[in-house]
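Practice record 12: protein with pyridoxal-5'-phosphate.
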Amino acid sequence: MSQIRLMRPYISFDEVEAEFREVFDSGIFTRGQHVEAFRAELAVYTGAKHAFLTTSATTSLWVCLKLLGVGPGDEVIVSDFSFPASANVVEDLGARPVFADVCPETFNMRPEVLEALIGPRTKAVMFVDALGNPTGITEIKRICSASGIPLIEDAACAIGSSEHGVRCGAIADLTCFSFHPRKLISTGEGGAITTNNDDWADWLQVKLAHGARGMKGVGLDFVDYGYNFRLSELQAVMGRKQLAKIGAIVSERNIVRNAYVERLRSMGFVAQRIGGSAEHNVQSMVFRVPEGVDRDALIAGLRGRVEATLGTYSLSAGSFFLSKYSCRQPISYCLESTTITLPLYEGLDVNLVASAIEDVLS
Ligand SMILES: Cc1ncc(COP(=O)(O)O)c(C=O)c1O
């Protein structure tokens, strides 16, 4: 029997074949109709005024920090339970990532922790929707607005999630998405930025197009220096196909999540908590393992039957940041070693996973 994989792609070659053929026949591989359409559809879906496509969430986060002028002497408060990219981009620009410990249930930044960390050097706050869970972002936004600090949402995992009926993409000042294969929409690699701010959208429009705005004679008018972090036409075709069915993808993932929670509760596994006003896309099915269970041994024991991995990382506990700043965050560090990600895809029989866990633990 083959191992149950963590995730299955939500896209098949059959779905894109006709459009791929058109792209190949036209010879237009970049800056074509699909890129423009995907960008517009993403704005409509998220409810954001502006959307921009990029090569990854990492480039999106980096560009947003550049936009805000983050540099040496600045601090950016970052949720500590995340993928290192969230803090790497801050470090790369010469600023200091200030790690905010998280709620042990939702795994997200806590308002009281944020309030205690805000200081004169705080240039921005980066809230991470841990594993796609947006719980608490609205309150974090309220604190940031009251303090006059821009909020970047690292929504790398959170396409399709919402809080108080507002989708990720339209909550924070700037939102960054990932289209990596472990995400609900995958273009292989890829990402996006959304914002409601017209001035920032204008900056992004120019900077993401090599610094060009309009034409100068028969050529482009390069009014600034800029970058190329573009998505291709073929990737945009893939993105559009998945965005068109994102509602169904989120529903299906929640059905499997509910079955998991029901099945594993009696075994002492505690699922990541979703706030009552939040809709979670369940990008990853993450549980805290029961007390006394060796998480690493469990993952090793499942190998061959069930693919499993850790929840995610405590950024402040990573070797680089720990040696540089020595400020390991206790809750996040505990979550890094006691959480497990289990497979989740449409139609998965969670009993197969549960039985494998029972076998390993017995
Ligand atoms: C929270 C978070 N931020 C950023 C990233 C980086 O995304 P990308 O691979 O698109 O650069 C990831 C990737 O998993 C992530 O989980």
